[in-house]
Amino acid sequence: MTSLVELRVLEGPNLYFPRAAVKLTLDVSTITEAGDEAVLRFARRIGLRTTRPGAAGSGFRQRFALRAVERLVRAIAGEAGTRRLAVRVRPTSDPDVVIVAFPWRNRGRARALGEAVAHALDALPTPDVEAAVSAAAAEVARAPRGDRPATITPTIPVVAVTGTNGKTTTSRMVAHIARTSGLMVGWSNTDGIYRDGVLVEAGDYSGPSGAGRALGLDGVQLAVTETARGGILLKGIGITRNDVSVVTNVTADHLGLQGIDTVDQLAEVKSVVPRITRKDGWSVLNGDDPRVLAMRAVISAQPWIFSRDPDSPAVREALTDGGRATTVIDGWITVLAPGADPDPLVELVDVPMTLAGLSRFNIENALAAASAALAVGLPRDAVVAGLTSFRPDAEHNPGRMNFFSVPVADGPADDGDSISVVMDLAHNEAGLEALLEIMAGVRRPGARLLLGLGAVGDRTDELIDALGEIGAKGSDVVAIGHKEWYLRGRTMKEIDDLLRAGAARVGVTDIDTFDTEVECLAALVERARPGDVVGLMCHAERQEAYDWIAEHGGTPDSPETLSQKVRAASA
Going along 267-408, which residue ranges are E strands? Predict the structure, then answer.
């Protein structure tokens, strides 16, 4: 058995260091299970001369393993000629597996060090462990130096957006505001790479390659990058710094992957983005999310807080420290600065993305986008114009809270016989709750909510089960629409069973299942009555769903139509 589970070369700032690093995932059972004599001999060889490793398999031995691995990396690097080396070691949910990371300047030598550490661990049970450590150091010394890191140092302003929910919408809004101001904007997100609003390359570019490509587009004057958890963990951030960072929120999502098992650990991953914000830049943080607000402790940049509550302690503290805040006062998006009168930018009802003030999440996204745009130096008038012209439709914000009116039978879509359809990614618990909140906000009295429920495969059993419970509890009719291209190692039956188990917990068992999202949408629309609201958790077949709606007489809702629906729902 080899001790090396995985070796990753991270090209830029990452969870462990603000620069390129090597991340090793190591099986340290050779340490945790070794006999007392072997482990003490190993400890002496790596310079731990006075230590108490504890009994094999004990918690004390596991703690010793963390310390020993760190010392082993330093010992091999030192004997290979590296005088100083920063090393970070972290436990995982498996007591026999640890993460160790160290920065690198030469790829070949760095990879060789990672492999040599594993070779030394593999030799621990043998009588000649001392010689194995020496051999590992010689292995590193012989290795070619290799390439330098490819991390890009930006030459234009960069706004970097991260978070669990809302990062795509927020980054799109910032890019739209910048274009409204007359700038040539390049931006990267989960849909692709855009130049001046035109898609130049489709695909998920929320990782390091997206930032690099956005910066490299011809004539770009401002880059807006969406930065997802996976890119930070698997490759590192592709740029050395940003000018403005935004953290929208941190909620449970993608847990159980790449050693991230808790929401607190996920927040630590997201904090990498504001950590590398320039000291004279701004970190835009959600003051209503305690985990995001706590990132103030690790940033060097100036704080710009956004909060729906103008009296929030987070707002007060930021202003006391010379920072800025964006909040809502008397229904207006308002900017606060120390020693100055509040600056009301625009009324919420005039910001289409807030869905007539109905969407709590999109109010927060609008606050975040306005803050980031002002922080990067965009003119106030452009911020107002951008907020009022960015719409929740397939053109401006595809796949996020897109509203349509669809006729029942053969009637026109704009009369009283229409039904509402809303499409959203809604890929986790918070996202689904937001979708249901919006659906309820446009439901006329006596009408029903019909939900097309679904999940991608790289979520924990608990999260998929929770989606079933939340969806069933918050709607009147539930159907499951699967995402064949996003099963990610699971089967449709596995996902189906988990969603049904969650729904059954709140007494809902009458659930139809469909192989595709579009089939699910069609079935729910067929069951809908005038005034009903159909919601679709759409991930895999967004364009196909748009096409189906258009083919069946559906039309996108304008902000005015949406406002009318909200008023009718509250009548």
Answer: 277-286, 302-306, 324-329, 332-336, 343-347, 402-407
